[in-house]
Specification:
By secondary structure, the protein is mainly α. It has helices at residues 4-29, 34-64, 74-77, 81-96.
C-alpha cells in the first residue's frame, strides 16, 4: 500500500502529465511542426516512465518486501513470496516491453 506522501507525489506528477497530453492535443489542433509534437510525446513517455519507476519502487518496498505487514495492500497479504516475485517479473516484462 502506498504511503500518503508517495501517493500525493504520484498524483501531482500525473496531473502534470495530463496537462502535457492536453498540450499535445492543442499542438495538433494548431498544426504545429511534427518534430515539435514528437519531442513532446517523448517527454510525456519519459514522465510516465518516471512515474512507473516510482510506483514500482513503492510496490517493491511496501507490498513485496512488506507483504506480511498490516500496512501492505490486501492484494499482496494473501500471496506467497514466489507469487509476488512472479507478479513482479510479469509487470517488469510489460513495463519494459
Amino acid at each position: 500500500m502506498m504511503i500518503s506522501d508517495t501517493k500525493l507525489m504520484l498524483k501531482k506528477r500525473l496531473r502534470r502529465i495530463s496537462g502535457q497530453v492536453t498540450g499535445l492535443e492543442r499542438m495538433v489542433d494548431e498544426n504545429r511542426y511534427c518534430v515539435d509534437i514528437l519531442i513532446q510525446i517523448a517527454a510525456v513517455r519519459s514522465a510516465l516512465d518516471s512515474v512507473g519507476i516510482e510506483l514500482l519502487t513503492s510496490h517493491l518496498q511496501g507490498c513485496v518486501a512488506g507483504h506480511h505487514s498490516p500496512s501492505a495492500h490486501i492484494e499482496t497479504q494473501c500471496k506467497s513470496e514466489e507469487e509476488l516475485y512472479a507478479e513482479v517479473r510479469k509487470v517488469l516484462k510489460n513495463f519494459l516491453g
